[in-house]
Design a protein that fits this description.
Length: about 210
């Protein structure tokens, strides 16, 4: 069987996919670590793994979820390598682009992250993930260029969020960035931002979570 045939014939077992769904819900760090370290070799052992973009993405995603990723460079590198392999095998793998963006963002490589999140936007189809990718584009731009320069970006994101389903809107990263950057604004710009944040609160049914930042 050639490489391409192996890639097409590889089907990740439902048992593994169910376990990944369970891992996402885990909160205990020890249990989460053990589950990830058990699942990754199981995926890598699948016949045709090395030629399959989706399977490599799953490995990169699991390493991204590892609670010690921010403390151990080996884990961050493992996540990055698997996601890069997924992209090399299939450049249209939007999920891999998204988590490559998160890897770069979390390590402060905001320009790299911005490029990756923008790439994911052209490949993703899930409304939730598209909303998240748009949020992260705005976060990167604020980190790079300052909040004053990004008020139009926030307006555009809020428009998209208003068009999305409520359950697809959870811009926690944007909230974190705004919390430390709103002090940079003039009173005039704060008033403008306040209008956008009230609309974002309404879109996500957040009460005054965002508007209270001002």
């Amino acid at each position: 069987m050639d490489n391409q045939s192996e890639s097409k014939s590889l089907k990740v077992p439902e048992k593994i996919l169910r376990k990944i769904d369970e891992v996402v819900e885990l909160r205990d760090e020890r249990t989460l670590s053990d589950s990830i370290e058990e699942l990754v070799p199981a995926i890598e052992a699948l016949q045709g793994f090395e030629y399959n973009s989706f399977a490599n993405y799953l490995v990169g995603y699991l390493w991204y979820l590892h609670p010690r990723r921010g403390k151990l460079c080996q884990i961050e590198s493992a996540s990055e390598s698997a996601l890069e392999k997924a992209i090399a095998l299939d450049p249209s793998n939007g999920h891999a682009w998204l988590y490559l963006g998160h890897n770069a963002y979390d390590s402060g490589r905001y320009l790299v992250a911005l490029k990756r999140f923008r790439q994911s936007l052209s490949q993703l189809h899930s409304r939730y993930l598209l909303t998240r990718a748009r949020e992260m584009v705005v976060c990167c731009r604020i980190r790079l260029y300052g909040l004053t320069e990004c008020l139009d970006d926030i307006d555009r994101f809020v428009w998209h969020a208003s068009e999305a389903e409520v359950q697809d809107v959870w811009p926690q990263n944007l909230h974190n960035v705004l919390k430390v950057r709103v002090g940079d604004l003039t009173e005039f710009d704060k008033a403008r931002l306040g209008k956008s944040l009230r609309r974002l609160d309404a879109a996500g049914e957040f009460g005054s979570w965002f508007s209270e930042l001002l």
